[in-house]
Amino acid sequence: MQLHPTFEPVIPVVAECITPDTFAGKSVDQIKKMTVYHGNKEKPLGELFEVSDDNAGTITITGTVPNVKGIGKGMTAGSIVIEGDCGMHLGAQMKGGTITVKGTCADWAGAEMRGGEIFIQGDAGNCVGAAYRGSKSGMNKGLIVVKGNAGNEVGELMKKGIIVIEGDTGALTGCGMKGGTIFCYGHAGNRMGAFMERGSIVLYNELQLLPTFTHNAVYNPTWLRVFLLDLQKTTYSIPIKKAHIEGLYTRYNGDISELGKGEIFIFKE
Amino acid sequence: MQINGVDIVNTFAEAFKMYGSRVLITAINEEWAMHSALTVAGFGTSVIMCGCEAGIEGTTTDTPDGRPGVNILLFANSAKDLGDQLMRRIGQCVMTSPTSACFNNLFGKKEFIVGGQLRYFGDSFQISKRLNPTPEYPKGRRFWRIPVMGGEFLCEEKFQAKKAVGGGNILVIGEGIEPVIKASENAVKAIRKVKNVIAPFPGGVVRSGSKVGSKYKFLPASTNTAYCPSIKSQVETNLTEGENSVLEIVIDALDIESMNKAMHDGIHAACSVDGVTRISAGNYGGNLGKFIIHLKEVI
User: Distance between CA B185 and CA B179 in Å, rounded?
Assistant: First the structure.
């Protein structure tokens, strides 16, 4: 199914109906009648998008939709491809399937996701895989790969799953983490892992850690080899080098102002 | 029927339903993986006294952590027994072995929690890590990292088992111990090239085959007198005048196809040595085992 945006990207659009689950078994006419919110006005999807059936089994948005929120929210299967930029809450609370964004993505991508994969070719905003305010946990299973940079609070309150940021990250990455794994290949922002209880953050650049993280040892963690080799099998071309798999990492544990069972690994050589 | 002038007796091997698991041990190099694997497979010749039958299936470089690995097959009469043995052997022989990690390497319907029990050795400092779901592992593959003096022991949470075939066998009969042991060595070499198969006895060969029952009330099994050459004239023997030695090769396999192939390859390899007179097989009249493997059919 192809959707081509026909509106000026000025007023935000909430289009949580754009998921493979809601499109499944529906005709083009039925899809055009689905409800979206254009600002505070309820409109049919067909008024904002040209809808056509390409018999591809994938929802493709052939344009840039930087102010369309909630695409793929709660989806359980299937795939969505966005050929330009996309708005906030992409794939939030999704349970399965894959989303590919060829441009950049606004805040809350994969927030509280429970499964599936999100691949963002450009930059991502704040709170990737994070928990919504008031929630107990953020991302809980699934994979998010961001080829560009990401904003603040990546993986905040994350419980399970894997986030890979190939560029730089903002402040408070992994804050309050309860589990899961975050890989940062670029430069990481300050206060990394603040208040984290459990979970692992792997860094490939030096970073001044919070004083509530304590040095443990330098070694080659076997679990990291397993994870990196598994990530290498994905189609996302994550820049994993042989040295990353076989090399040494310095392990710090923290945040000791909390449970202290979280860990930050910094690649050494 | 003959192969290279060696008679293939018109009889059958009687094999039993067992449960089998494949455990993959990796380490910093193949030598250390093998140290651990040999220890796991040690004292694993017969379920009668060892709890399970275990053997090394082969080495591999296709491992989850990219390090050299050794595959071990373990077989037991029940899934419960197998789970118990996996716990004991991985706990005592893999966790203790420097640099080792331990992975499930078989998909089956039975599942045992191993890493999930061994984790308590970590005294609350153990850490769980889970990979993302795959079709093979719908809930995601879960590992436990247990801090140990050498670094960290990584062990898969659950190991799996499937129904398997145990107790397939061939008897190599010959003029003396030299040709029989040479033929047995050739047979074991051929059998070990077959995937999904082990020969659990020392060097793959057993010299003390048994029969059901004994003259002693307390003993359920005793030496296979019909094949003991040194008492030929004192018992109802299955040996002829010129036959002075018999060795048995016991085979366990994850499926009947692998068992048949192993027996085929083993018999042909054993028939390549002068001085071997006959190839036979052990059975209990077909009354005990689920699988009847006729020698003439497998060759």
Answer: 10
**Where in chain A are the domains?**
1-86, 107-269
CB spacing of A229 vs B151 below 8 angstroms = no
Go through chain A and tell me how many residues it has. Answer: 269
Measured CA to CA, the distance from residue A156 to residue A163 in angstroms comes to: 11
Interface A-B, measured as beta-carbon pairs within 8 A, has a size of: 57
Q: How far apart are CA A92 and CA A79, in angstroms?
A: 14
In this structure, what token pair is assigned to residue B295?
Answer: 């020698």
Whether the CB-CB separation of A107 and A154 falls below 8 Å is answered with no
Pair A45, A51: CB distance under 8 Å: yes
Contact call for residues B272 and B4 (beta carbons, < 8 A): yes
- β-bridge pairing A49-52 and A59-61: unpaired
Cβ distance of A161 and B143 shorter than 8 Å? no
Q: Is B228 exposed, middle or buried (0-12, 13-18, 19+ CB in 10 A)?
A: middle
Rounded Cα distance, A90 and A16, in Å: 9
Give the predicted TM-score (pTM) of the model.
Answer: 0.94
B65 closest CB neighbour out of A198, A229, A263? A229
Residue with token string 């935000």: A12
**Do B127 and A222 lie within an 8 Å CB cutoff?**
no
Subunit contact B66:A200, Cβ cutoff 8 A: no
Cβ distance A205 to A114 under 8 Å?
Answer: no
Instruction: Kindly report whether the peptide bond that precedes residue B65 is cis, defined as omega within 30 degrees of 0.
Output: no
pLDDT in tens, chain B (299 residues): 899 999 999 999 999 999 999 999 999 999 999 999 999 999 999 998 999 999 999 999 999 999 999 999 999 999 999 999 999 999 999 999 999 999 999 999 999 999 999 999 999 999 999 999 988 899 999 999 999 999 999 999 999 999 999 999 999 999 999 999 999 999 999 999 999 999 999 999 999 999 989 999 999 889 999 999 999 999 999 999 999 999 999 999 999 999 999 999 999 999 999 999 999 999 988 888 899 999 999 98
Task: State the best of A98, A222, A225, A264 to mutate against chain B, taking most chain B CBs within 10 Å.
Answer: A222
* Number of helices (H), then strands (E), in chain A: 5, 17
User: Which residue out of B99, B127, B128, B153 would a mutagenesis test of the A interface target, given it has the greatest number of A Cβ atoms within 10 Å?
Assistant: B127
ipTM: 0.94
Nearest to A223 among B26, B125, B129 (CB): B129
Cα torsion angle, A27, A75, A129, A238, sign: negative
Q: Comparing C-alpha atoms, which of B89, B97, B90, B88 is closest to residue B151?
A: B97
